[in-house]
């Protein structure tokens, strides 16, 4: 499957794409509005970074205990949990004159509610599309993320400048309600693939297997840590633009989203399947290298170019996620991708918190360069271990297991 016409020929995938678009618009509006309130109230890079990217830290509890619900619940019901919680949270955020600390508590609500079902979207996509459509389907959903981050952050900057913040939150709540309706009436229910009993024990057992395997553990770490450190750079866009004397945080977010969008289009549409794994390492390095240039405190035009080029490297995640499809049990697909998604968000939140903490002491541009250097170091360390999950190695391991079974 190589064309957008093919993936969009599936009606439920079209619904899933629209859902992803609206969801990212909601998240972008809500995040930028909340970050603006927090930075204006506290002038703290750390708290602003936590508002932008810290919510997923709450998913650690659910990922460790009840993430298996992604496979035991019907996929439509599981997919409804987080947008419904987002709608409630945005309505609460719209209450005027809330203390900024109470807004942080409200921010945690959708992540707490959705931590048990975070793999449901990828499980649903995998059930809608054939196996050879995974990378293009995933890239197309990422396309929705990139486009709507560009639109959401750009529109959010304009709306915040011209409307009360409570009105922006109400718009976000309306978007969340639209997502709930689209999922309820546009997606057919499918039964769970795992029993609902012993959920905590099964969740822990599958997590131990995935994170203990020398094949899948490096893939998860490569998806989580280098990306999370670069998100830590992005979490400092608002302090960086303030230091530079230019109010351009929304523009920086939009440009980096456009870079991610470009990378996903190229990987999903143009790179042949036989070449995807060959470009994983160069793209993982590209994700961090441009941010080293922030050590020189570049002006806004150069910063925009550096952010755009670096974000193209995010598309390395697509072939890495494809490796998880080929090296894990299909019956656990929701938890496999739920763990990947939860770990990614936790890595992003940790990177944002780390960046914000360092930026309390150092200038934002120097902090961004330090985080980029750390990302490069981790990527280099993980490169040898990632060879175990490469397609050729996976086939060799399968053959070895088959030969062992025959001799047994």
Overview features:
408 residues, mainly alpha, Growth Hormone, Chain: A, 0% strand
What's the layout of helices and strands?
Blueprint: H1 4-7, H2 11-42, H3 45-53, H4 59-65, H5 69-72, H6 75-93, H7 100-114, H8 120-128, H9 134-162, H10 165-186, H11 199-212, H12 216-234, H13 237-244, H14 249-270, H15 280-286, H16 300-312, H17 317-327, H18 333-359, H19 364-386, H20 391-407
Helix pairs in contact: 2-3, 2-6, 2-9, 2-10, 3-18, 6-7, 6-8, 6-10, 8-18, 9-14, 9-17, 12-17, 12-18, 12-19, 13-14, 14-16, 18-19
Domain Major facilitator superfamily (MFS) profile: 150-408
Membrane topology: Multi-pass membrane protein
GO cellular component, one term: plasma membrane
Please tell me about this protein's structure:
Helix 2 packs across helix 9, helix 6 (75-93) packs across helix 8 (120-128) and helix 12 packs parallel to helix 18. The protein has one domain: Up-down Bundle (Growth Hormone, Chain: A). The model is unreliable at 393-408 (pLDDT under 50). It has 408 residues and is mainly α. The chain starts with a helix and ends with a helix. The chain has helices spanning 4-7, 11-42, 45-53, 59-65, 69-72, 75-93, 100-114, 120-128, 134-162, 165-186, 199-212, 216-234, 237-244, 249-270, 280-286, 300-312, 317-327, 333-359, 364-386, 391-407. The chain is globular, with a radius of gyration of 21 Å. It comes from Nocardioides acrostichi. This is MFS transporter. GO terms for molecular function: transmembrane transporter activity. Its main location: membrane. InterPro entries: MFS, MFS_dom, MFS_trans_sf.
